[in-house]
Amino acid sequence: MAFKKLLASLGAGGASVETVLTEVNVVPGGVVQGEVRIQGGSVSQDIEGLSVGLQARVEVEGQDSEYKQDIEFTKLPLGGAFELQAGAVHAVPFGLEIPWETPVTTIDGQTLRGMNIGVTTELAIARAVDSTDLDPINVHPLPAQKAILDAFIQLGFRFKNADMERGHIRGTRQKLPFYQEIEFFPPQQYRGINQVELSFVADENAMDVVLEMDKKPGLFSEGSDTFRSFQVGLNDFHGTDWAAYLNQWLSEVGSKRNWF
After folding, report:
1. Selection from 157, 151, 139, 159 nearest residue 99 by Cα
2. Rounded to whole angstroms, how far apart are CA atoms 37 and 200?
3. In 41, 65, 94, 198, which residue has its Cα 20 to 30 A from 229's Cα atom?
4. In terms of domain of life, where is this protein from (predicted)?
5. Domain shared by 190 and 114, yes or no
6. How far is CA 145 from CA 94, 114, 237, 245, in A?
7. What are the pLDDT digits (tens) for 219-246?
8. So what's the pLDDT on residue 216?
């Protein structure tokens, strides 16, 4: 028995954890439902804690390089300590709230390249190796976000890539330690722009829409970035023609800078 306990402390023959999500498709501000199932190993073990959270793989810019970092950006404890008997099954249901700022990972059924978000499960076992699990989820845009995304597509922009970057966008309601950028290739009519980067920073009432435009270098000028941000209510966005709004603004900015 002592040998089995030693093996369990090293992760062999110890408890295992599995998380089953009721529905993997969610929206910011929603709730992901599921159940954590703990299977006892060959010996009884003291469980010190159980929790679920959300984790994102984020780009971090260093002085000389970029690297990826896993950031847990919300966490929900599930009960206190207990003893798990050998071979026993312990099931714990949960409802994990999705923060309003959570990046979008799926649009119109298509997964955005570069997005990696999931539900992480942590089982803390006394005198043993912590057991963790990660289950991907699909975060769909809110209706207000979808309206802006559809406007870009309507104007002829093509999706390029998406990423999550550690840091803060100044002047927004951002609370998370990272933000999302959705990158688009512009159509020919915006020939002075290399790409447009779109960020959403939402709360329960409204969202900041941040645009960063990468200007192409000209014959007598260098390339540069132009920023624009505006606020959109989550429930009062229907009355605006967003394609016309974005087109007018892009044209005005472009003409002032002789882009087009």
Report:
1. 139
2. 35
3. 65
4. Bacteria
5. no
6. 27, 19, 9, 15
7. 333 444 678 899 999 999 999 999 999 9
8. 53
